[in-house]
Amino acid sequence: MPSFEIRGASNPGNPPVRWDQINSGVVIKQARRVYFHYVEQCPGGVEPIGIVLETSGGLGRVVFEAPVLLPDEQFVPLDLIRGRSAGRPRSFRSPQRG
Prior knowledge:
Layout: H1 24-41, E1 50-54, E2 60-63, E3 73-77, H2 78-82, H3 84-87
Antiparallel strand pairs: 1-2, 1-3
């Protein structure tokens, strides 16, 4: 239990992505930039769970556990940053023979 509460901070167990309040393309692009910078700097580093971005300024940080967000922060999970191809392999159909 925290010793104090930050008014407007999100619940650390469920940091929501509020797609209705943001430009998702810009947010994911910024989060990818932060993530790929981390991968370049720490190629064998621990895998993060996502990125926390400041809504004003586009600065961000890599996080390894569920964050407590300040009112001007947005959490972007790693699966959204990586995109579809990194998460699950696509299934390809073999051509049908006639």
